[in-house]
Amino acid sequence: MAGLFRRGKVGAKTDYEFSLHLISEKCDISVILDERPEDEIFQWKLKDLSKRYSSIRKTLGDGNCFYRALGYAYLESLLGNPREIHRFKETVIRSKGELLSAGFDENVIGNYFNAFFSVIELIERNGSSISLLRAFNDQNWSDCIVQYLRLLTSAFLRNRADFFQHFVDDGMAIKDFCAQAQQFIIHDFAVCGLFWEVYYHK
Asked: Enzyme group, top EC level (predicted)?
């Protein structure tokens, strides 16, 4: 488990009084140098990162941390940039077509899409990092966002099965690979190894 922070309850009146157990506030990267002092590789990697980054956020290591961190980091990068937010909204709207062409039922993806799109509209309205952090620390909202990103990754692979099939072990069909390792919540980012295989064989 990484990054278990708590400063109040979800839905509290004060902006900062909500649970931070999924994604933390920013902290100085030097703070985590004290963690795992016996792990030389961990220490070396952190010191290397500290040359390029001054702060870091922690995420809960629950099997969803990659997608949750990716989603949060990208949306946070859009704050204060209306043009990029608008461009991304259009991209997300088009992404439904990717899912439908991969064979996903619109009724299944609807709730996940709506949750993800609502968070984009949220940052478009007020541009608040606090509101974004609150949304990503709400378990229901956060899990819906993660699930949409998982389904979108699965759709990307399934729609390009002829290409990716050669990188899946044991002759497993891409559709089965996605169903087993990619589409369900609380699974590690198994497809990372597949993308690495593709990169390595270029």
From this structure: hydrolase
